[in-house]
Predict the structure.
Amino acid sequence: MAVGIKRANKESEYTKEQIAELYRCTHDPVYFITKYVKIQHPTKGSVPFELYDYQLDMLDAVHNHKDTILLCSRQLGKTTVVSMYILWWTTFHKDIKAIIASKAMAHATEIMSRIKYAYEELPDWLKAGCKFYNRTSIEFDNGSRIKSEATTEKTGRGDSPTIVFLDEIAFISKRIQEELWASLAPALSTGGKFVLTSTPNGDDELFANLWRGANSGQNNFFPVLVMWHQHPDRGPEYYEEMKGKLGPIKARQELDCEFLSSDELLIDSIKLNQIRTMKPVFSENDFNFYVTEDELSTIPIFLVGVDPSTGSGGDYSVVQIFSFPEMKQVGEYRTNKLIIPFLYKKITWILTKLTELRGKNGQRPEVFWSFERNSIGEAISALHFNDEKQNEYAELVNDDPSKFGMYTSARTKIQAALKLKTFVEKVGEGSLKLNSEQLLFELKNYAAKGKSYEAKIGATDDCVAACLVVIRILDYLSKFNEKAHQTVYDYDYDEESDGPMPFAIV
């Protein structure tokens, strides 16, 4: 055995302190990695692997979820984090079968070299003994093994892996992606852990579709997004320097984590990448709020848009709450589990809460709300019609005096979408201030299809649909509110547009 490699089945004596450390390392990957793992820094040489906060989030996701998908800007250490987790798992646990696959054999071998270096730098008493140790694989005497290989359509076929790590999966050919996923799908159903990592490489490939599906709840992957600015040593100067080296297009892909495509998005993708969402300030009755309770009580006018669904798991029911005149997203509710009667109770709860808030100068705020009455919305309409307290909640905005809610036609959808586009892309006063991560994600995947717009394959657009209802409420408000009239009609958008052009290059 080479220097730094522990012989298989070597008898060892341990001190009480070492036994305690072995126990702690076995049960705590963070402790093991931060205390004992060393990596090769490009300028500093051998250094302890000190995890940044965002790397701790990565590690937590991989450890606590069966399947994880990591979308990361370049050079954030995602590959090293997952590799060291695999070293921890195989070192301290029996019969773990780990497969590491990357876009080329050279990359796979380089990942294995990081694992081997970290292993060789461990204290001898902490190491698992090695039965087999070469350039592409390691087999420990506890029955665990690590194998690295180039990603091909045959990766993992015939194996029963405990964990499969696919690195930079977006950069393998589409044909291989499709065949690979077909071969790995059985392992997904039998309990194997999957970790997928990549920067974007186009929009119409496996990683992009799985990422959209993870965010929309259409697959079981837990999504983790890590951006360049989360690194504590990287500020605007770093971005501009890298943008100069990479060029604007590649920077959007590798720094901004943008899935570039030839699809015509409703809203300019550069503008979308400039939007910074926020975590909810507080939650109540499953509604997320992006302002404090005190701030909520100072808002003079609320606009509440509802896009209902069946609650059967496919589509989501969404309630969007915006303040006026600031046009700031202050609340959001999203579920795919509530049937219509229970959804209606949620709606009446939020309307009651908003109308009971004390506004500025001790005045009650005005609340305007509406819902899309197409198909499922008719059930909301019926419930509202039979609700004896319907007039106590808020003012319901209708597009037809004889019917409740708003009917969405191709034309009304396009008109509302164009106004939404203008409001989001406008800089400064009058722009729409978006706070929800889910809403932003949907807008990044809301693209032209035929003469209209809809979600790309694997994504949803329910949050956007509820926003379009808000825009239509604002249009109604403009008929008697001067500020609303200015907000709606002082912008340059084409109300006569029949929809997007057949194609556009982004």
In short: The CA atoms of residues 130 and 138 lie 7 Å apart. The two ends are 55 Å apart (CA to CA). The chain has two domains: 23-254, 269-489. The longest strand covers residues 317-324.
